[in-house]
Amino acid sequence: MRHLSAARRTIAALAMLSLFAPPPSFGWGREGHLMINRLAAESLASTLPAFMHTPAAIDEIEYLGPEPDRWRSPAEPELNAEQAPDHFIDLELADLIGPLPRRRYDYIAEIYAASLTHPHLADQLRPERVGFQPYIVSEVWERLKSAMRDYRELSAKHADTRPVEAAILFYSGWLGHYVADGAQPLHVTVNYNGWAEKENPNGYTTDHKIHSQFESVYVGANIKPNQVKPLLTTEHAVSDEWTDYLAYLRHSATLVERVYQLDKAHGFDGAGTPEARQFTQERLAAGASMLRDMIDAAWEQSAQPVPDWHG
Q: Which InterPro entries match (predicted)?
């Protein structure tokens, strides 16, 4: 019964979200995305092809860190509208459908089905409002794995690999943007830019400033790569990309309130506080570590035989 009561409270709180319409936000800002992609590229496993360890390759992966944010210009409104939901997922809403299916269109169908069973949330339970974050990660990661498989085949034939090398670097950099977004707790919650739920007993900010203040202004002014690099974790084998990545997002979700606590203590104002600095460095390191591990996993798994096609 306590579980049901908690679920009802959550649904009631989510019903209030239609009253809030914060402006769109960008993940980590340019500096954070460049930092995460470069740190990941510099720490890739030695078993990856030699071209991925060259300075030119590392520079390319770094440059591509902010790439999907470059697609969010009002000069390209259709592109912006199509891919903006890939940067986030509001897990409080997504979890109303139960375990997330692995495929994007199954997820879309289940979100629409949930809007019928929760009609008071119908405006919020639209796929583009709930977000697609883990789906774009899975899809780009599979593109990367496919390109790496082609690289293996071409290398075995002593054929020209330069075109597929370019594709691998692009997919690696593109993937990095979304993996980095997943390390930012405000990309996995309805409270992404000011506390939006009805219940706010701790008096967290409701202004629509916290998102950019944390990930862009504060990072750009205070956090440097040499502070983040020592915090990268040791290499971790990714056995099942979907499951491991969802666990990564779930961990980020546990830190949402911590962001608001630090903000309330003026941790992201100016030079901030030591606690806010440590927290931000750890989140950037988590993004770089996960990206490194996912690129490494794509290479390892690209060696596996392709399953037979069954139509």
A: PLipase_C/P1_nuclease_dom_sf (IPR008947)
